[in-house]
């Protein structure tokens, strides 16, 4: 933003679609960790929260560090026309590039154009507060907002990619990431895809950076040893995830029905809410599983941990569906592994980076009901093997999802690519 001068210390501006978002607690954990490390940052939320804010850290950050604005108001339109008067050619060029590079996804062009006034408003606001680098979470609109601030005002920016919109054709995403100073990606699967399939000019600027585990999980780890059970005891299963098609709850329900039909005693707790709830409840009734499956709805994280602590096995059957956000490594899988709960899941996306079949858990093929049922039975009928899997899983997740190590890596990226004020660094 070349027309203003400020003496505020350089800081980081983080643009997020919506903060806080209930199913994006991994972003909240990262922000809390950055704050704990002494990083100066502000959060710029493109939407107001749609759900009540209940987590203490989210309440504090949303109150003390987060800036909100509607899409079109006096401030955003004022920022647009102010910039248009000062830099008409830059604004016109940015709009033209959005249209040209977005030609393979015409429905997204309107969204990317609509965000321009708000991005400029946040840009002026951030500059006044000393923001010298922008960091956009997710591949879509937040990175577009950051890109605008670079193309029009010359600000630097980086991207944090969590999987959304990276597997379908997306010329504009390639163009944006070519303009970013660096890109952090939350799984090796996604990272490899960006480096090899998008045709990036500098794929070496794409870096793997796993998420960290919630500290509340780690606090429970010493209290939760492997749950000993006899092979003839009923199985206590748990699954956690939004009730949407990508989570594969229908596969799990059918697999449980098959096991019960074969004489296995079990009970499954399904934690989560979502648009498929009634459809899944109908499937449970259709399969005659009403006595064996309980829908618990969305629960506070503390209650989720309580349920995990008494479970024998964690099960989730994710699938990829074109046009819908893919799972990378679902956080709940990592959390269950850290708590030494044997995991049965599917061989899809980035999950095999963490769950190695026969070593740190069991994997079934996507939509393979028979295979999923067999994997559950294998773990349930062999307590010794289950313990071996859970012990190895805890070691692996502790290595890959170490919050402090991963924050160290993220801070190193900011240090190498930006001029923001970092702990122990002259600003």
Describe this structure in words.
The protein is of the alpha/beta class. It folds into 2 domains: 11-212 and 402-417, Glycogen Phosphorylase B (Rossmann fold), CATH 3.40.50.2000; 215-400, Rossmann fold. It contains 17 helices and 13 strands. The protein has helices at 25-36, 56-64, 74-86, 88-101, 106-114, 116-128, 141-153, 171-179, 188-197, 215-220, 249-261, 277-286, 301-309, 331-338, 369-380, 383-400, 403-417, and strands at 11-18, 41-47, 66-68, 131-137, 156-161, 183-185, 206-208, 235-240, 266-271, 293-297, 313-315, 343-346, 362-364. A 7-stranded parallel β-sheet has the order 3-2-1-4-5-6-7. A 6-stranded parallel β-sheet has the order 10-9-8-11-12-13, sandwiched between helices. Strand 4, helix 7 (141-153) and strand 5 form a beta-alpha-beta unit. The chain is elongated and about 75 Å long.
């Amino acid at each position: 933003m070349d027309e203003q001068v400020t003496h505020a210390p350089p800081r980081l501006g983080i643009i997020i679609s919506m903060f806080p978002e209930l199913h994006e607690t991994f972003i909240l954990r990262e922000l809390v960790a950055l704050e704990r490390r002494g990083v100066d940052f502000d959060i710029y939320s493109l939407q107001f929260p749609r759900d009540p804010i209940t987590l203490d850290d989210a309440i504090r950050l949303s109150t003390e560090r987060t800036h909100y604005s509607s899409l079109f108001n006096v401030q955003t339109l004022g920022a647009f026309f102010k910039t248009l008067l000062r830099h008409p050619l830059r604004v016109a060029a940015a709009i033209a590039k959005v249209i040209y590079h977005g030609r393979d996804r015409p429905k997204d062009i309107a969204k990317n154009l609509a965000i321009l006034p708000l991005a400029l408003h946040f840009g002026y606001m951030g500059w006044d507060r000393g923001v010298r680098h922008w960091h956009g979470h997710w591949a879509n609109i937040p990175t577009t907002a950051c890109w605008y601030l670079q193309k029009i005002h010359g600000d630097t920016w980086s991207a944090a990619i969590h999987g959304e919109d990276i597997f379908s054709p997306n010329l504009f995403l390639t163009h944006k990431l070519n303009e970013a100073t660096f890109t952090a990606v939350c799984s090796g699967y996604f990272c490899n895809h960006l480096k090899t399939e998008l045709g990036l000019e500098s794929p070496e600027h794409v870096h793997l950076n796993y998420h960290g585990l919630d500290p509340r999980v780690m606090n429970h780890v010493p209290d939760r040893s492997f749950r000993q059970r006899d092979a003839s005891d009923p199985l206590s299963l748990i699954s956690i995830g939004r009730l949407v098609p990508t989570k594969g709850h229908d596969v799990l329900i059918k697999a449980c029905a098959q096991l019960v039909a074969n004489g296995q005693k079990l009970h499954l707790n399904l934690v989560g809410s979502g648009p498929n709830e009634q459809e899944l409840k109908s499937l449970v009734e259709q399969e005659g599983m009403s006595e064996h499956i309980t829908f618990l709805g969305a629960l506070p994280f503390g209650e989720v941990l309580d349920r995990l602590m008494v479970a024998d096995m964690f099960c989730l059957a994710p699938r990829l569906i074109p046009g819908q956000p893919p799972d990378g490594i679902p956080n709940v899988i990592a959390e269950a592994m850290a708590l030494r709960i044997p995991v049965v899941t599917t061989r899809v996306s980035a999950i095999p980076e963490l769950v190695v079949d026969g070593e740190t858990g069991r994997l079934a093929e996507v939509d393979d009901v028979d295979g999923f049922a067999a994997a559950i039975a294998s773990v349930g009928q062999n307590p010794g093997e289950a313990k071996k899997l859970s012990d190895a899983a805890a070691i692996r997740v502790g290595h890959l999802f170490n919050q402090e190590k991963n924050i160290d890596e993220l801070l190193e990226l900011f240090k190498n690519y930006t001029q923001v004020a970092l702990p122990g660094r002259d600003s």
